Amino acid sequence: AGCGKEPSSYMWIYILLGNMLRGVGETPITPLGISYLDDFAKEENVPVYVACLHTIAMMGPMFGFLLGSLCAKLYVDIGFVDPGSISITPQDSRWVGAWWLGFLIAGTTNFLSAIPFCFLPKSLKKPEGANNNKSSRGLLENMVATKKKFSPENPKPRNNRMYFTFLCCSLLQFSSFIGFLTYKPKYMEQQYGQSTSKSNFLIGVTSLPPVGIGIFLGGLIMKKYKMGIIGATKFSFTMSFLSYCIGLLHFFVGCDNYAVAGMTVSYE
């Protein structure tokens, strides 16, 4: 009879608002951080610095999966119930891990790491070796000067196809990556009989570090060969094409489905 009751808890609202605030805080890091590096670093060092930024950003999900693996081993009501009274184990399908504990640990860590930013100066001096024309202010001044000098009576609309193509490519890449992180743990649990804790641990250790290493090596290669926008585009296309070709091999790897009564086999 107790299972027939409707859920009356509205705690999901706190989770929703918390994730909204987290998204607001995370959004400026990538665009403003990359713009800052592009303005105040030497031109040949920008690819390496950006690669370092993205590599460190990949370490966050890796540690997140490891933290999730640890929290999944703890019972959801840890600290409120006697551990000796729990009669099920993490291998039991009824087990629910302490998913909420990761939010508290990650939130506290984010808050503490944000404190040093309050002591940064409002503006920094531009290094001598940096390209002044690449800075946001320099670009703006050049655009204004050019516009005044060559101001046509009937200006033509700008057709920035490369920018649009880059946005579409980024959307496709992030969509596939998010799908991978969302469903692969469940696939490992169902197909290979692994626990939630072990699935998160394996993905955090095996999947994300190679991506971070690849981003860092890509930055070093771009710095060594001093690639421009066209060279970087060709390099990105070649690496992406090879990645997709290797990814097609997943279609030839699989396991037999489990025997599920009423679905794959009869009840008898």
Q: Brief description of this entry?
A:
The chain has helices at residues 12-26, 29-40, 46-72, 99-114, 136-149, 161-192, 196-206, 208-225, 229-247. It is mainly α and 268 residues long.
Topology:
Blueprint: H1 12-26, H2 29-40, H3 46-72, H4 99-114, H5 136-149, H6 161-192, H7 196-206, H8 208-225, H9 229-247
Describe the structure.
The protein has helices at residues 12-26, 29-40, 46-72, 99-114, 136-149, 161-192, 196-206, 208-225, 229-247. The chain has a domain at 28-119 and 163-251. With 268 residues, it is mostly helical.
- Give the ordered list of helices and strands: HHHHHHHHH
Strand content: under 5%
Number of helices: 9
Total strand count, please?
0
Helix-strand category: mainly alpha
Portion of residues within helices: 55-70%
* Euclidean distance between termini CA atoms: 29 Å
Radius of gyration, in angstroms, nearest whole number: 25 Å
Rough shape? globular
Mean pLDDT across the residues is 79
Which spans have pLDDT < 50 for at least 5 consecutive residues? none
Q: How many strands, what sense, and barrel or not for the largest sheet?
A: none
Organism: Smithornis capensis
Membrane topology: Multi-pass membrane protein
Subcellular location: Cell membrane; Membrane
InterPro entries: MFS_trans_sf, OATP
Characteristic key phrases:
268 residues, mainly alpha, 9 helices, globular
